[in-house]
Design goal:
261 residues; alpha+beta; Creatine Amidinohydrolase; four-stranded antiparallel beta sheet; 5 helices; globular; binds magnesium ion
């Protein structure tokens, strides 16, 4: 069993650099994502951008994954392959990105609403982003993993949404996936205690309908069992006393999206 890898303040700054490069990559995606373009073209853009910034896409060749981004439209929950799918008005497109720079990993995901999306999708995106924020608020010294999990689950279910059980957040930094697991469901006050030096990828995956998912026999793609939409937001977060330190950011993405309006 691998152990939790605690990071020094210097190492956390290197993880921040990687996480910010992920955020910048997602902001580049934000510039061009829209109706008529393929998800594969976004992947190529991300690959070039990450390479141009002296880093390596963390997902490329991870367990045999063939791309730099995971792109998961609509009923795909996570781990979708970029391909010749043409994005259309009304889609929800989850884009997950990771990079390695200076031997440290950053990991973040954002779900894009393409043009006018229906009310169910609008609410799903809003609530999933709120779930992430509520989870992050618990990523402070003295809380437990279960406090993050409970905060996410309670908000999602109060809004009538399903919380994916089979996929979870994780420690991150020295490796892409480290201990501990960070589930999006659980009991308040349960699990390991959060301590200074822990860096977590908190990533609610929330379904508009049932929590149940299907794993495709391509080995990667995960969709909702009822084919209703799913949303996914993720930040790389350092546990701190009093207030979590969010190492990735959505503000770069949001600036781009505001300008496009
Ligand atoms: Mg991710
Ligand atoms: Mg992750």
């Amino acid at each position: 069993m691998s152990k939790i890898i605690y990071k020094s303040p210097e190492e956390i700054e290197l993880i921040r650099e990687s996480a910010l490069l992920v955020s910048k990559t997602l902001a580049e995606v934000a510039k061009v994502i829209g109706p008529g373009i393929t998800t594969l073209s976004l992947d190529q853009l991300a690959y070039e951008f990450i390479k141009d910034h002296g880093a390596t896409p963390a997902f490329l060749n991870y367990g045999g994954f063939p791309n730099s981004l995971c792109i998961s439209p609509n009923d795909q929950v996570v781990h979708g392959f970029p391909n010749d799918y043409v994005i259309k008005e009304g889609d929800l497109i989850s884009v997950d990105c990771g990079v390695i720079k200076n031997d440290f990993f950053g990991d973040s995901a954002f779900t894009f609403s393409i043009g006018e999306v229906d009310e169910e999708k609008q609410k799903l995106v809003k609530v999933t982003q709120e779930c992430l924020q509520l989870g992050i608020e618990k990523a402070v010294v003295g809380m437990r993993i279960g406090d993050i999990a409970f905060a996410v689950q309670e908000h999602a279910e109060r809004n009538g949404f399903g919380v994916v059980r089979e996929l979870v957040g994780h420690g991150v930094g020295v490796k892409l996936h480290e201990k501990p697991e960070v589930p999006n469901y659980g009991k308040r006050g349960s699990g390991i205690k959060l301590e200074e030096g822990m860096v977590l990828a908190i990533e609610p995956m929330i379904n508009a309908g049932t929590a149940a998912v299907k794993f495709w026999n391509d080995g990667w793609t995960v969709t909702t069992r009822d084919n209703k939409p799913s949303a996914h937001f993720e930040h790389t977060v350092a546990v701190k006393k009093g207030k979590a330190d969010i190492l990735s950011t959505f503000s770069l993405i949001e600036e781009v999206l505001d300008k496009k309006k």
